Amino acid sequence: MREEGLAPARPVPARGASRTSVKTAAAARAHARAVVEARWNDAGRPAREEDVIDLLLVVSELVTNALRHGGGLAGFEMTPLRDGIRIAVRDHSDTVPAVKGGPGSGPAGHRVGGYGWPLVVRLARDIGVEKRAGGGKTITMFVPIRTVGRPD
Q1: Per-residue pLDDT tens for 100-151?
Q2: InterPro entries per the record (predicted)?
Q3: Cα Rg of the chain, angstroms
């Protein structure tokens, strides 16, 4: 994902993307809920609540990880698509999340922390991590959103 496609200082929607100056995980969750409301619920095709909950968890974990481990949140973008939402989160760290987690795995032992990234890996699809030439990275992923009544 290109840098110019991510969070400017103020909301500037373009080509279906929803950019906002999110600064906290709570603000990211509220924005995600608003995108679902506008794209699915207002169109008379209500989104499955379990998918919305997955989306909110993914958004919360990505933003929290950027704030805690990524040197701060540098960009946040959500793009609603026909069957879900593409998310892009940019931070200031060059450190790529450890490749662990995924279906059937969880954090080792009872250590504090380490649950967020494996959770994201389990709930999202098409995960990409791109280091940025000027420093930092962009993490992109897709979270499926099904409508009520649509089979799995």
Answers
A1: 544 444 444 434 457 788 999 999 999 999 999 989 999 999 999 999 986 6
A2: Anti-sigma-factor_SerPK (IPR050267), HATPase_C_sf (IPR036890), HATPase_dom (IPR003594)
A3: 15
At 13-70, the pLDDT tens digits run 434 555 567 899 999 999 999 999 999 988 888 999 999 999 999 999 999 999 999 9
Q: Minimal CA–CA distance to 137: which of 99, 100, 93? A: 93
Q: 86 in helix, strand or coil?
A: strand
Domain membership flag for residue 5 = no
Structure tokens at 72: 């701060």
* Residue 75 in domain: yes
CATH code, domain with 77: 3.30.565.10
- The answer to whether residue 7 is domain-embedded is no
CA distances (Å), 38 to each of 27, 30, 63, 138, 149, in order? 16, 12, 22, 25, 19
Residue 151 lies in a domain: no
